[in-house]
Amino acid sequence: MKIINNWGFGIAALYILFVLSVAGTVIFASFQNVELVDKNYYSNSLVYQKQIDKKKNSNSLTDIIKIMQDKKYLVIIFPDEISQSSLSGNILYFKPNDSRLDFKEILKTDSVNQYRIPLSRFVKGKWLVKIDWMGNGKEFYNEEEVTIR
């Protein structure tokens, strides 16, 4: 009983609990999966000015790209001012919390400047739709967050 009432025992017990909690935190953190936004983050940052110019081109359009969901499809509607025959590019579907689910599609619109992709291709949750496209001789870039239900 005298050991428990001793100040030295209390300080030692506190120190041991602190060391165990720090060790537990380090072990827990070492098993966590860390996802980078981009594997080539630093090399891609060097060409970012081109991306800024593409975003300015997108902002200069009178109409914006619209992304909507219906029961079966994710629909991307391109502005009418861009001719359907000149539209080209690609779309990256980016899942922020799991890069294994990311996928890329080549942009092919229908006769009314719409691109449709089945919702069955997606896992429910938050996605970033990154559209790198060209139309009427200009390059554009749009990025929008979409929640698949």
Walk me through this protein's architecture.
The chain is of the alpha+beta class. The chain has two domains: 1-32; 41-148, Immunoglobulins (Immunoglobulin-like, Sandwich), CATH 2.60.40. 28% of the residues lie in helices and 32% in strands. It has three helices and seven strands; from the N terminus they run αααβββββββ. It is elongated and about 85 Å long.
Query: Widest sheet: strand order?
Result: 4-3-6-7
Strand-pairing-aware structural class: alpha+beta
Strand content: 25-35%
Shape summary: elongated
Q: Please report the total strand number as a whole number.
A: 7
Please compute the radius of gyration using only Cα atoms.
Answer: 25 Å
How many helices?
3
Mean pLDDT figure: 88
End-to-end CA span: 61 Å
**CATH architectural label of the largest domain:** Sandwich
Superfamily (CATH H level) name of the largest domain: Immunoglobulins
Low-confidence stretches: none
User: Could you name the CATH class of the largest domain?
Assistant: Mainly Beta
What is the CATH topology classification name of the largest domain? Immunoglobulin-like
Number of domains: 2
Order of helices and strands: HHHEEEEEEE
The biggest beta sheet is recorded as: 4 strands, antiparallel
Instruction: Please bin the fraction of helical residues.
Output: 25-40%
